[in-house]
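Our collaborator T.R. sent over the components below with a one-line note: 'Predict the complex.' Nothing else. No constraints on interfaces, no templates requested, no preferences about which chain binds where. So this is a plain run: every listed entity goes in together, and whatever single assembly comes back becomes the starting point for the next discussion.
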Amino acid sequence: DAKTTQPPSMDCAEGRAANLPCNHSTISGNEYVYWYRQIHSQGPQYIIHGLKNNETNEMASLIITEDRKSSTLILPHATLRDTAVYYCIVRVANNNAGNMLTFGGGTRLMVKP
Amino acid sequence: NAGVTQTPKFRVLKTGQSMTLLCAQDMNHEYMYWYRQDPGMGLRLIHYSVGEGTTAKGEVPDGYNVSRLKKQNFLLGLESAAPSQTSVYFCASSYSREAFFGQGTRLTVV
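Returned assembly:
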């Protein structure tokens, strides 16, 4: 699985959009970009994933560059409850060998009033 | 639908003691995983299973054993606990894409 690079921490004002970047320059053609978050030592929570098209769900939007070497997770209106560590993970969707996730250090997002 | 349930939530062990952590999922998922998370770090994979009766080593398997006798349960055992195994342990299950995590077991070895 390709490695990812994320900034260790970011701040965002409550109500503003939070844009979390992720670099994955060695991503392969069949690898997806996944985002999870971990709120205050709870179990990680799935947010969104995508292959090459931009994706949106009720939690967030995922923007993947055309060359797929980087992506941005967007929380459109951040709230205090979005304060968490956000993990960007790249992985083949179904490799029939366990589909395990490899976690890096993530980005610690602090949403401030 | 409870998702992924871990038992116990907290435990203190003395060095050399043994214990088993239980993970149960009610989503009929084939894949299950055990991770550990040390303070300020990301999760690291200990062992995983791709189906009932199968197990495999992850990134940090030493000092741990696992069993998957039933599809819904994945057990993590510590035969002789060491202070280095003080950590928060997370279990997860998945089908092909999204993984679901339990709320963690906070283990302290003194």
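Summary for T.R.: The interface with chain B takes residues 32, 36, 41-46, 49, 87, 93-94, 96-106 of chain A (CB under 8 Å).
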